Amino acid sequence: MDGGLIQGAVDGQGSGNASGITIMAGRLELTRGARIDSSSYGVGRGGDLTVTATDAISITGWDLMGNPSRLFSNTFSLGDGGRLSLSAPILTMDGGVIEAGTGQGSRGNGGSVEVRGGRYLAPTAPGAGSAPCRRATASGSGSPTRSSPTRAS
Q1: Model's pTM, two decimal places?
Q2: 101 alpha carbon, distance to own chain's centre
Q3: Quick one: pLDDT at residue 25?
Q4: Which of 80, 13, 12, 96 is nearest to 47 (CA)?
């Protein structure tokens, strides 16, 4: 997806939960500021966002305003953020964002992030290369936990 938006969020006036989004693909590419959003901007909970790719997930680039391509399920009000789950043999990040947190002034809890994959590629990062990525998890509820892979040599 090049610069587009898929959204299943609950807006500031809504009291229900955001829609869940499930994407199953061979390859998912988000480029030039493309976004997939299942956030809560109101009272309801953010939706769960699940992406499963049999080949690869690539989240790269920015739009003309400097906004990065991203997958997110945040909270910006009273509702909690949703759960973000990604699974692919290869995950490429070059300026992209995966996020399940809280916005300024939010009273809800951040969502959670789980990434399962074979290799993580960050082409423009310092010491760029690839790293095995068996499983990484992070929680936005105030005490994140994360298991980071070591870089392949």
Answers
A1: 0.76
A2: 10
A3: 96
A4: 80
